[in-house]
Amino acid sequence: MRLLICIKQVPDSTTRVKVATDGRSIVTDGVTWSISPYDEYAIELALEHKDSAPDAVVSVVTVGGARAKDALRQALAMGCDDATLVTGDGADALGPLGIANALRAVVEELKPDLVLCGRQASDDDEGFVGPALAEALGWPHVSQVTRLEPDSGQLWKEVEGGHEVWKVSGGAVLTVQKSAKDPRYPSLPGIMKAKKKEIPERSVAGVEDPVKLEIVKLEPPPARGGGKIFKDGDTKAHAAELATLLRDEAKVL
Amino acid sequence: MKVWVIAEQKEGELRRVSRELAAKGATLGDLTVLRVTGEHVSAVAAATALAERATAESPDLILAGATPGGRDVAARLAAKLKRAYLSECTDLTVDGSSIEASRGMYAGKVRARVRAALPAVCSVRPNAFPLPDESSEPALADVAAGDAQGLAFVRFEPTASSGGRVPLSEARVIVSGGRGLKGPEGWPQVEALADVLGAALGASRAVTDAGWRPNEEQVGQTGKTVAPDLYIALGISGAIQHLAGMTSSKVIVAVNKDPDADIFKVADYGIVGDVFEFLPAFTDAVKRVKAAS
Q1: Among A11, A135, A252, beta carbon nearest to B80
Q2: Pick from B167, B60, B266: which is nearest to A223 by CA?
Q3: Which of B117, B164, B208, B235 is the most buried if burial means most Cβ atoms within 10 Å?
Q4: Closest Cα to residue A199, out of A112, A82, A115, A108?
Q5: Closest residue to A158, CB basis, from B155, B216, B241
Q6: Cβ-defined contact of A230 to B282 (cutoff 8 Å)
Q7: Residue B10 bridge partners (DSSP)
Q8: Nearest CA-CA partner of B106 in A60, A172, A10
Q9: Residue A129: CB partners within 8 Å, gap ≥ 6?
C-alpha cells in the first residue's frame, strides 16, 4: 500500500500576515514557513496507517520553488518515506489546475493507492487543487476526511451534524479535515534521517495551466477596536445593560 | 448572461444560502436554479451530471453556496469544465466578460479582491447577499446524479451533541466558548443562552482539542471562518488564529476575566468578569429584552 500526500508550504499559522506595498502580495521577509496545517493532518492520517501496517509506504510531494524543499524535509522528519519536489521557473506562479496537472504526473509515476491533500491550503484558502487533481486523474474524491481505513477502503467524511462513512474501491483523492489526533512532531532521529535523504526533482516545464485568477488587491481586514469595555463593577448589572445595548444600539437582538 | 445556482436542500427545504444566491442570480441575468437528485450523491456524481448539462447550455456564471457540500461540488465542476473557481466569496460583481469577487485569504488575515474571465464557477458564503423579505421559492430544475466512480455510501454517524441547531456557517448569531468555561460541564449554560438567541454553538481550538466539544464547532484557522450579525465570545482569550476566523462578524461581544485578553481588541462590547456570573444574568436579560420588543 502506498499513500501519496500532496503538501504546500505556507506562512506559519502564528504569522501576522502583512500586505506588501504593491497591494497585491504579502511581505515574505521574516515569515516562518511551515507545512499547511491541513496537510499536516493528512500526513498524520497516513503515518497512523503506517504505524499499524509497517509495509505501507508514505510519500510526499510539493510543487514550488527551492524553499519548498524545507517543507518536504519536515514531512520526512515526521516519518514519511520519500519526497518529490516539482520545481523550476514558474513553479510558484502555477494556478490550481496547473498544480493539479503537475501532481498528476507524479501520481502516474509513483502509482499510489490513495492520494491525500489538506482540505485547503491556509494561504489561498481555495480547496481547489484536491478535487482538480482527482479530476485530472479520472478518480473520485472525498473531502473533509477525518479518519481512514486504507485496507477496507472505508473513510469518514465530516459533514454537518456528524460523519458519513464512504467506501472507495480503487484510486481516490482524499482531502483531509482537522481530526482528533494532532500531527506528530518530528523526532530527533527522524530529523537526522531526513537530512540525508535525496529529494528527487521534477520540472514544471510544459505543464498545462489553463486558468488564472488575478489578484486585483489585497488588504488587511478593517480595523476593529474602540468598543465599550466594562472593566469594573457588577458583572450581573453589566450583563443586563449589555442586552439592552444589543437591542437598542447595535440592533442585533 | 446565463447564471446558474446549484441549490442545496436540508431536511427537505431549500437552504437559506441557496435562496440568497437565487435572489442575487436573478439580478445578474437569466437564472436557472438546479438541484441534483439522488440518494447520498457524492461531489463527483453531482459534478459529472452538472458538467454534462453545462457543456450543452454554456452558463456564464455558476454559483454555489460555500457550504461543505457546495464547495465540494463547485470545485470539482470547475475542474471538469476547466474554468476559474472563485472560492468562498463574500461579494461579487460581473462586468461583461469578467467577474470580480471579494474573498478571505490566509485564514481571514487578508481580504482579497480577485478577478477571472467568464465563464467561471463561484462558491459564495452564506449571508453575503441579503434575502429579500418577499422572495418567493425559486423554481428548481432537477438534474439526476451521474456516475459515482466506484464511491459507495456506507452509513451516517451523527455527532451526539449537534441536534437541531443552525449550522455554524449559516448562523446569524453564534455563542462561542473557550477555555474560560473550564470544562464540558460549562456548556449547559452556554447552550441555554444559545437557545434563547436561536444561535449556533462555536468553540475555540483549545476547547475542541481538549475534546470538550466536537471539532465541527471550532471557529478560526483549521476550523470555520464565520461572519454572523452577533458573535459572543465567552472565556476566549483571542489567539490570532481564532480572531482571523471571526473578525468579520458585525457585532462582537467578549466576556473574559483577563482585562488584557486580545479578544477585547476586536470587541464592540466587552465585559471583564466571571463568565459564570455573566451567563445566567445575560440569558435572563436577553429573555426580558426579547419579550419586551
Answers
A1: A135
A2: B266
A3: B235
A4: A82
A5: B216
A6: no
A7: B13
A8: A10
A9: A6, A96, A99, A100, A103, A117, A121
CATH architecture label of B2-144: 3-Layer(aba) Sandwich (3.40)
Q: Identify whether the C-beta of residue A46 lies closer than 8 Å to the C-beta of residue A241.
A: no
Q: What percent of chain A has pLDDT over 70?
A: 100
Contact at CB, A141 and B266, closer than 8 angstroms: no
Residues B62-106 have pLDDT tens digits of: 999 999 999 999 999 999 999 999 999 999 999 989 999 999 999
- For residue B140 the three cell numbers come to 428548481
Q: Chain A neighbours among B 216-235 (CB < 8 Å)? A: 216, 218, 221-223, 229-230
Q: How far is A73 from chain B (nearest CA, A)?
A: 23
Q: The C-alpha cell of B13 is what?
A: 427545504
DSSP string of A30-85, one letter each residue: TPPEEE-HHHHHHHHHHHHHHHH-TT-EEEEEEESSGGGHHHHHHHHHHT-SEEEE
Q: B168-292, what's its fold? A: Rossmann fold (3.40.50)
Q: Give the tens place of pLDDT for each residue, A205-245.
A: 999 999 989 999 999 988 898 999 999 989 999 999 999 99
Residues of chain B with CATH 3.40.50.620: 2-144
Pick from B68, B115, B151: which is nearest to A166 by CB? B151
CATH architecture, domain defined by A2-203: 3-Layer(aba) Sandwich (3.40)
In angstroms, the CA B235 to CA B215 distance is 18
Strand B230-234 to B251-256 pairing: parallel
Please provide residue B151's backbone torsions phi and psi, each rounded to the nearest 5 degrees.
-85, 130
Q: Which residues of A touch B162 (CB under 8 A)?
A: 160-162
CA dist., res. B22 & res. B26, Å (int) = 6
Give the count of alpha carbons within 13 A of A206, CB side only: 3
